[in-house]
Design brief:
two-stranded antiparallel sheet, alpha/beta
Length: 258
């Protein structure tokens, strides 16, 4: 990237255009580049890499306090990236930043995350991409997260990332003075133990709410969820390639034939 030219940064999220984390991120990223926001019109948490097929997508301009802020898309985070590249932006941006998500995206949550999926879609499209999440579901303070997002984005714009790789960053919801450090981590094994709670509507018909508890299965600072709980920022490189190469040799020994 030309160091004299301000970078063009595409922002997206899965909490929707009104997400507080997105607005904090936009304000921070505008200090280092030109920002275009393209976000879902409604929250789409837990959508992973879902795309809208068979239903038309609609783009609308979004204003806040009578000032243009960005565009909404009537679809998923991945839809937003695809629409931004094909219909809104004149050329590919220098950087795609997704977030700041309300709630962590560590361990198996990474697989469900629309925030992470938007960044992965950026990587698939050949765009350097990052995803940021704040590890809380209440009383969120995005101040430090937005600051760190700007700092890491500047570094990534200079250093670049490998092909098909993003950085998924999870940040504790604590003041900057209480952050113990920055760790490069692996995606952990912690997972949700879920239950479908049955309720009944006014006609007596059953319906269900998914509920669950995160089971902490990691005990090392090299794992993202554990690191965040220990008040570290967890920076995890994630690849679009899901291939388990360690198992390929063993699988070949199965001697599968037609």
């Amino acid at each position: 990237m030309d160091q004299l030219k301000k970078p063009h940064i595409l922002l997206c999220n899965d909490d929707g255009i009104e997400g507080e984390g997105l607005h904090a991120l936009a304000a921070s990223m505008k200090k280092i580049g030109m920002v275009t926001v393209v976000a879902p019109a409604e929250p789409h948490s837990g959508m992973s890499h879902a795309m809208t097929l068979g239903t038309p997508l609609r783009i609308k301009k979004y204003h806040k306090n009578n000032r243009f802020f960005g565009y909404t898309v009537s679809g998923t985070p991945v839809d937003c990236v695809k629409v931004a590249l094909s219909q809104i932006l004149p050329s590919k941006p220098d950087l795609l930043v997704s977030g700041i998500n309300y709630g962590s995206n560590t361990a198996t949550n990474t697989l469900y995350s629309g925030t992470v999926a938007a960044a992965l879609e950026g990587a698939i499209q050949g765009i350097t991409s990052l995803a940021f999440s704040l590890a809380t579901y209440e009383n969120a303070d995005f101040t430090y997260a937005a600051k760190f997002a700007r700092k890491l984005s500047k570094k990534v714009l200079t250093e670049g990332l490998p092909p098909d790789t993003i950085l998924s960053v999870n940040i504790p919801n604590i003041p900057e003075s209480e952050i113990r450090g920055i760790l490069i981590t692996e995606q952990g094994r912690s997972r949700w133990e879920e239950d479908a709670i049955e309720r009944h509507d006014v006609y007596g018909n059953p319906y269900y709410w998914l509920n669950g508890t995160l089971m902490l299965l990691d005990t090392s600072l090299r794992h993202d969820e554990y690191a965040v709980r220990e008040r570290y920022v967890a920076v995890t490189p994630i690849s679009c390639d899901f291939t388990n190469r360690d198992f390929m040799g063993s699988l070949e020994q199965w001697n599968l034939k037609k």
